[in-house]
Write a structure and sequence with these properties.
This protein is of the alpha/beta class. It contains 7 helices and 9 strands. The longest helix has 16 residues, at 21-36. The structure holds S-adenosyl-L-homocysteine.
């Protein structure tokens, strides 16, 4: 049902007129869950209201798109838990002037949320297939301020640097040095840090003239940041 609805949405350009009641209820619960888990910045909530997560989840899991859980996507990766997307976006304190780099495009959901808050969003993934699928959705949704590229995000994106904000959506053992170097003075980076199979700490890095400041925000669990490009 939800999948048929999502397909219908894609074909009708996202018109809300044919939305079944159960989807409307699921979406209301989705926003209640975001708020109850600490996503309370009105700009972030407004951006998340503009992006239908149902379009970014495919196949079997479409019916669970409005639950506050991470879900499997192609290439063995996951679309992040929505409340974590909200909390990371909120912690990044994005302003409409900002140029943002996201490392780990995945489904494209986080980048789509960022595109409503920032001036320009660069997003990179090591899997070509994920970048192509996400690009298809960005085009469909008319999100023209996103540039999606296949690249190893461990090295950042020198061609777009420096960045006002960097959001890493895969866990690194340490904040990658090239990413720190590509962060502007006054910039903020949000990055999960820790071993891939353990609980990781979500770190907020703030760069000032004096150097880098690190603050642990909460515990999270992300797929690992892997060096090199993927096979598909
Ligand atoms: N932000 C995504 C979820 C990302 S899951 C969303 O909103 O759906 C983490 C992603 O990081 C995966 O797609 C994985 O392929 C990617 N990734 C892991 N290591 C990477 C690297 N070195 N460079 C770029 N992307 C990487």
């Amino acid at each position: 049902m939800a999948q048929a609805w999502a397909e219908d949405r894609l074909q009708t350009g996202g018109a809300f007129t044919s939305e079944p009641d159960e989807i409307t209820t699921a979406k209301m619960q989705f926003f209640l869950a975001l708020r109850s888990r600490g996503v309370n910045d009105p700009r972030v909530l407004a951006a998340m209201e503009k992006v239908d997560r149902g379009l970014f989840v495919r196949g079997l899991f479409t019916s669970r798109a409005y639950e506050d859980v991470p879900l499997p996507i192609a290439c063995g990766q996951t679309i992040s838990q929505p409340s974590v997307v909200g909390l990371m976006t909120q912690a990044a304190e994005i302003t409409p002037r900002d140029v943002v780099l996201e490392v780990g495009t995945g489904s494209g959901y986080q980048a789509a949320v960022l595109s409503h808050l920032a001036r320009r969003v660069y997003t990179v993934d090591r899997h070509r297939r994920l970048v192509a699928e996400a690009q298809g959705l960005f085009d469909h949704l008319g999100l023209g301020n996103i540039t999606a590229m296949t690249a190893d995000g461990c090295y950042g994106l020198p061609s777009g640097a420096p960045f006002d904000r960097i959001i890493v959506t895969a866990a690194a053992e340490d904040p990658p040095t090239p990413l720190l170097a590509q962060l502007k003075e006054g910039g903020i980076m949000i990055v999960p840090v820790g071993q891939s199979d353990a609980v990781q700490g979500l770190i907020k890095v703030t760069r000032s003239a004096q150097g880098f400041e690190y603050e642990e925000l909460r515990q999270v669990r992300f797929v690992p940041l892997v060096e090199g490009l993927g096979s598909e």
